[in-house]
Fold this sequence. Notes:
By secondary structure, the chain is an alpha/beta fold. The protein has 47 helices and 14 strands. The chain is elongated and about 140 Å long.
Amino acid sequence: MSDYVEECRAALQDCPPGHSDRSMSLNNLGISLRSRFLQLGVLSDLDEAIEHLRAALLLHPLGHPDRSMSLNNLAISLRNRSQQRSVLSETDLDEAIELIRAALLLCPPGHPHRSMSLNNLANSLRDRFQQRGALSDLDETTELYRAALSLRPPGHSDRTKTLNNLAISLQDRFQQQGVQSDLDEAIELHRAVLLLYPPGHSERSMSLNNLALGLLSRFQQRGDPSDFDETIELQRAALLLRPPGHADRAMALDNLANSLRDRFHQRGVPSDLDEAIELYQAALSLRHPSHADRSKSFNNIAISLRDRFHQRGIPSDLDDAIELHRTALSLRPPGDSLRSTSLTNLAVSLRNRFQERGIPSDLDETIELNRAALFTRPPGHPDRSISLNNLALSLQDRFKQQGIPSDLDEVIELNRAALSIRPPGHSDRSSSQNNLAISLQDRFKKRGIPSDIDEAIELYRAALYLLPPGHSDRCQSLSNIATSLRDKFQQQGIQSDLDEAIEFHRAALLLHPPDHSERGTLLNNLAVSLRDRFKQRGILSDIDEVIELHQAALFLRPPGHSDRSAYLDNLATSLRDRFLLRGVPSDLDEAFCLFSQLSCLSHAASRSDLDAAKSWATFAEEMNHSSALVAYQTALRFLDQHVIFLPSPSRNFDVVREVISSLASDAFSCSLRRGAFATAVELVEQGRAVFWTQLARFRTPLDELSASGAAGEALAAEFTQLSILLRNKFDGPTEDQSSHIRKLTVKWDDVISRIRKDHNPRFLLPPLFSDLQKAAEGGPVIIVNASQYGCDALIILSAQNPIHVPLDVTQAEVSELSFEFQSLVQGAGSSNQQLESLKIAGILRKLWLRIVNPIVQALSEIVKPNSRIWWCPAAEFTQLPLHAAGPYERKTKNLSQIYISSYTPTLATLVRARQRVSRDATTQHFVAIGQANPDSGNELRCVAPELAIVAKRLAPIASFTSLQDSNATVQGAFNALRNNQWLHLACHGVPNRQQPFKSSFSMRDGPLMIKDIIQSDWQKPEFAFLSACHTTVGDEQSLDESIHLAAAMQSSGFRSVVGSMWSVDDEVARQTVSAFYDNLVDDSGILDCTRTAMALHKAVESLRKKISLEQQIVFVHIGI
């Protein structure tokens, strides 16, 4: 080609200006340079070609027979350049079009070159339409191709090309205007082209592909399965014509894979997706590392693997997809036009993994990638609104997980920005209005700002306006307005809002026929709003309609449906409302009949199942119905299952707190009122400290199972492995209902079922009373309970039936007593210590008279003085110092002078501590950790002297280690506890009553938090003295859960723990520690954690006259 260019250049030199052949030589050189550009891609060749062709045109003035040819040649070269240079593209393309129009005028009907000019003009106008989107250009293109086709009858050499061009322009117009006849005509034209390309023709594969794309478009428009199936068969045929080595084979592989993946989305046939992945991988293998489409291949495989993950849940598919997206992104460096797409694809997959596994770094990276994608799509970019929406969704995920208000505020601003660039007429405007409305409604629910709900309602209305009757999204839009109006009504009580909500619910319901999958939800929504109106106005027809709607909704939720319990609850509650109004016994009977179905639930319980069972219990109590105890048993069974399926009860503690409420305490009270003492113990154990119960399940000793033979040993190993996986996830920040955790739990449950079947029928089931009674082997355990239905104590004995002690005090009075006491001790330390002590003694006296003395009277008949007793307080009693109760009068004894008190959060905890055998005394290892100067908090002056006292007493009899100051770090503490069974910890204790898992011990480099402690795997620890403040202070809203530092240490395996109920004076701590270890260590030189309660008792007695009353009673013993 270069030789030919030089020949043409030489020929031009032989034709100087004025020469008769100069125009021909200019034209030849221009065409040769253009040909070399098309071959080699050197733009300077194209620029020079245009210069020579312009010169040739000047030599062909109006009337010259070759002017039409020159106009066409220059136009074609300008069109070529417009396709290469974006800056010059618009002017080059406009000039090319004007030149071809001029050429067409010189080719009137009948001219042999007219069809060529018509075709050239159509090609250039189609380019301009693709560049600027002017529909007039597309319409003219189509008409020009029709005109060209009419001049190329059957048998014409260019007929197939023109048929194809017309078909493609009709498809383009269909995609713009949606006129179905355009698409149908395009398909028929493609069929005609295919007939002109018989088997063996070089263009047949291209024709097969074009017809396939047309049929695929029609399937997407009308959903005819035969179109889709024919598409795939055509693409298979096209692929066969592009064998290995063919330049277009990779493209044909991609086309077939795309269609198979689309068909998978339609029909869900796994083999389609598997084949698509194989085809994409084959296409990738044909694209060498520097191939322009290699990134696209990585992306295609990644998206397909992500699809397969969503169908089959194989974690490795999602992990592989993420890595492939990363590789695709690495091939799209900053500045690449497709980088924003790669950023978005990776973000979507990482968000999917976050939703599955809850890995915080995945969510953080998702947000950063979406921010980066948004940055590459500045104002004016056609995909900017998509990036705004994606970033809003990921921030909304983080808000739901962490509750950071600023995230929700940013979500709203992003949704506003997305809406602003989807003006009236934009196809996605209603979607943006809806997204913004949802985020405003979420903020309203959190903050109650009236303007938020008002704006949300207006946006919902605007979205509805854009969804005319017949639109597929209209029903959802009506429902959204209705729920927002109901939210507004519940805050502001405006009756018209509720009336309008009801009308919108009715309108939504009309759009769903009886067999529609969402009809049950709409029936329920309408019923709930009508019930609101009934409660407000008492219209009898409303409650009758409510019941009819709930009955219809329940019919659509058969046994086994995940929503059935909620719908049972709704119908039963409405029947109760009508019974209370009219007193018809059949309504009451039907309500309890519905509730009783809950006890037969076969699937794992959800939150709605639990809520329904709690509603049953409440109603049964209210009506004094005989089913109350069964209702509580059902609710507590559901609670156990629900907590198991929470991926992270510590992260989801708000959920745990809410579902537990007063359930265990009320169940205990109900059982006692019915004389079922053993059941009372079982139920209160099942419903309290559920977090610690769950964690203990993953630490269950398996010695007996392992020793039962090879099968038992294998089961023990499998159970241990799954337990470790679950325990590691237990405090992981995972999203509620994470399927990854669910799958692990299903496997874990399967192992448990096999263990129960073949080895131990009661393995990990809630303990029976006979098991829990073992907690009292060392002395009686007293459960003290406060419920809205009454306050009681139950004394558990090792070899006798429990003893019930009714308490003449109400829950409100106990709560008031607790508040009064906490206020006093929190303000302790004033100059008038004597007055403080008198006030505290007054409260301890009330505690004695109303609560503890009746219990002591019952104990005195069966338990000798100076014996040990264990308190197991529930509800409001957990914050009261039961161990310190007494008359505090001369010549009378306080409780501490009658019995030696210890505490336990649950009976099961105490049983586990008793059952575990201590290590051989010869292997006792003791570590003392002291941090006087933590990263935050005041200096503790007595830490060093305190540790010196501990060292003096313990170093001679145990393998003793001391960590202080710079060595007392978080990791240092963990390392020490791996090798020591006895611990003394002197530092600041920092409770967190709102987020109890963040309660901590202050180390030099930061906090050692509960959430870290529960991840530990310490080897059979024995005893911990927590010389720190507030180590038994837990969550203020869920007292029964005992989420505090001392409980965390006990849960980690420490059989015996000394902790504090409030602030400890530094000097008092030093004195108490000195006296404690003096009493703990005896002449035998053997450490025994069962002596720690007695040692603390004697230490406090010895200091009674030296320290204030408030400090005398601050330390408590927990455990054996």
